[in-house]
Amino acid sequence: MSQILELHPKNPQVRLVRQAVAAVRAGGVIVYPTDSCYALGCAIGDKAAMEQIAHIRQTDKHHHFTLVCRDLSEIARYARVENWQYRLLKAATPGPYTFILEATKEVPRRLLNPKRRTIGIRVPDHPVPLLLLEELGEPLMSSTLSLPGDEYPLTDAAEIHARLKHQVALVLDGGNCGLDPTTVVDLAGGAPVIVRIGKGDPARLGATAS
Description:
The chain is an alpha/beta fold. The chain is built from six helices and eleven strands. The chain has one domain: Alpha-Beta Complex (DHBP synthase). An eleven-stranded mixed β-sheet has the order 1-8-2-3-7-4-6-5-9-10-11, with helices on both faces. Helix 1 crosses helix 5.
């Protein structure tokens, strides 16, 4: 049976966040709040946990996971970033954007787009995941908490826990996050291209729609 831990949304309790970190390191899947929606997260190299997330969401092998990072320096370890890309990332992070970039060899192959060798990466503007990432010391492999058959992502942690308590290790309750997913921006070409419009303002990026 999983736990639900109620966190202060602006000043999350370190001891509770460390429980989540312990669950991730033990191979568990956790639910945590972000600056867009609630998300499912697990350790970056954990194949079984990744498969559990795919099972919860009922996705196929082509589903793209996202690496949720602490800051720009961590992004540079997992993605190749040119100067023009760096300037855009610096202007838009932290924030509700997911960026598609060419991956480095640090990224497990199972996370890559098989044709383009790209990875989705983001830095959330929310104190809970930022503290979680700081305590974990590495990115989270992550996916938006959108369940099969639901029109919208879940926003109430108690409902999330009631529905997923047998499938996740714990739920971090950070209050209502909202319904809008991240804006997805492809930076793997020569110019930024909006793949999905979400919570992040596309005008901030100077990108075109795909």
